[in-house]
Amino acid sequence: MLKVRYVRLKLDPVVLKSLSQRAYSLGSSQLQVVQVDSSGFVLRYTTIRHLSAIEILGDGTERTTSIPTMERHSLRIFTAGSHAFMALLDPPRGSRIQTDVLSALIPDQNYFLEPLEISKPLISRHIKEFDSARLVSAKVRDLRITENAVGRLEVTSKEGLEDDLAPMLQGKFYRIDSMTYEVTHDFKRGLVTYISNGTVRVTSPLVEVAFPKFEHVLGNI
Question: How many Å apart are CA 49 and CA 70, to the nearest integer?
Fold first, then answer.
């Protein structure tokens, strides 16, 4: 299963076109361009972080020490239509990786990152790109239970769900947290999950087709 988080990248178009050249010119082992194509480029970002640990000495006493660990991340910066995006493979929590990379590429910090809202219309356009797709699971949040209480709910069905998810949700206020579809395309079957924070998760059989199709429909939002 592969997971990618997308964010909008608002940047001067002239600067955007030169980002891959900027990365090359850095000559850094920490930030490397590994692939360039007509719509963008892929970066590999390597960073060393230090973890605090407690070392027990021979006499039984304890000493706090620092252990270096290496993290490696892959990012793609690309354009779709008139928009620019950054995609982070297997993202950790938060946006530190994206901001660290952009700070290295654009020292004056003349950029803006905006979370990508994966809406129902965007999902609808994407799943139409496949031979067949049916909604099999959805998680909702901020479900209004009473005037002073909200809840979270997960609805699943192997037979597929309707667009309104469940009768108990009709007429109630809620927000979509995630939606999972069972997808079939070119005799391959898998799951595609859309998460409200801009993350798309795809099982292995569909990875090579699902992400390019998703990035294609991003150009129409």
Answer: 6
